[in-house]
Amino acid sequence: MKFNLFRIIMAGAFLSSAFSLAQTSVIEKIKKNPKAPFSYAELSVKDGGKWEGNQYIGGTFKNIQEITLPESHTDHSYYIRYEGIGLENNQIGYRLYLDWRNATDIFGKKINTLVLPEVGQDGFESYHHDAPWGQDILKSGRTIGIGSYGRYDEQNDFVETFKIVKNTAVKVVNEKDQSYASIDYKGWKTWGNPIDLQSKLTIFNRDRFVKVDLNLRNTISGLCTGIVAFKNIPLKQGISKNKKWGYIATYGNQTETKKDDNLGMAIFYPLESFDKYVKTKSTHTVVFKKTKNVSYYFLGAWSLEPNGLITEEAFYQDLDKKLEILDKNNQL
To answer: What is the residue range of the signal peptide feature (predicted)?
Structure first.
């Protein structure tokens, strides 16, 4: 029995080491050719410390490829580097919180080389401040941020996030031209019976957008996505020529950088899956029809990124071009 237990422990250690080496190999490959287009997905957790209640004490961060979240994990547990999965390419970075918030945040980049492996190594605070590479530029608050997903509670006019989930398993994969994170939520409780949901967030080695694929075991109503709403920032909507795709978008001084900068945010959604648009207290919300699966895109565009979209006109011209592509090809 002891020998079998030893073999299990050693096998786990070997797999963990192999996953870490695989991530290191991806990072080294990108850094060897810094001017080349790249995509990158990251998951980094602490190792060598211990849990004390809901906080992880001590240890150092190590990149891994997959994990089932510990029961003790919640927001500000100091266990996952920058609190979630990261997605990045030459132009932009995103993170999705792996806790009850389940919000997507934006890392604005001032350089076009890889930055995520260094972000958050010294804790939560530094990436909220200006650095040579950029910073966290979006204040999501208690919303789903940009392009994340939840369930719209019509009775309370509120987007329900992932406060009650039995089990969450996460995996990141880096391929030649794209990188993605897949997240399996088991027993997501909102109202009615618990729900099993699988999400896949894919970033490509071009442009700024992320594709989101949502698949559920059972059909539900109220599945939604959206954009955090800021005071005095107007919403614009667009529909493609053949009425296959639409978008909601905002543009303006809606970052937390305390600078004279602008940020554009958009959601592209298939009209065949669209139920309604709702403006809650804090979120521009796209509610989907009762469904078991849906795919959509989101993007952010920061005016301070290298060769960025520095005007509102340029931002909406870019969205309209993408809308034409979606209308013709049904994908970006």
So the answer is: 1-22
Under a CB-based contact definition with an 8 Å cutoff, are residues 42 and 172 in contact?
yes
- How far apart CA 143 and CA 155 sit, in angstroms, is 18
Residues 6+ apart with CB under 8 A from 64: 16, 19, 20, 23, 43, 44, 45
Residue 302 sits at φ, ψ, to 5 deg, of -95, 135
The sign of the CA dihedral 209, 210, 214, 220 is negative
Give per-residue pLDDT as tens, 126-138.
898 899 999 999 9
> Residue 40: CB partners within 8 Å, gap ≥ 6?
26, 27, 30, 86, 87, 88, 89, 114, 116, 174, 179, 203
Residues 144, 147: Cα–Cα separation, whole Å: 7
CB proximity list for 101: less than 8 A, separation 6 or greater: 75, 140, 142, 161, 162
Token representation of residue 127: 């990436």
Across residues 267-296, what is the average pLDDT?
97
The yes-or-no verdict on residue 4 having pLDDT over 70 is: no
Tell me if 95 sits within 8 A of 86, measured CB to CB.
yes
Q: Give residue 186's domain range.
A: 2-329
Give me the number of domains the chain comprises: 1
In one letter, which amino acid is 167? Answer: N
Task: Report pLDDT for 292.
Answer: 94
In a 13 Å sphere around the CA of 321, the CA atoms on its Cβ side amount to 7
Identity (one letter) of the amino acid at 252? G
| The residue type at 128 | H
Q: Helix, strand, or coil here: 252?
A: strand
Which tens digit of pLDDT belongs to each residue from 18-44? 555 567 788 999 989 888 999 999 999
User: C-alpha angle 268/269/274, rounded to 5°?
Assistant: 150
User: pTM for this one?
Assistant: 0.92
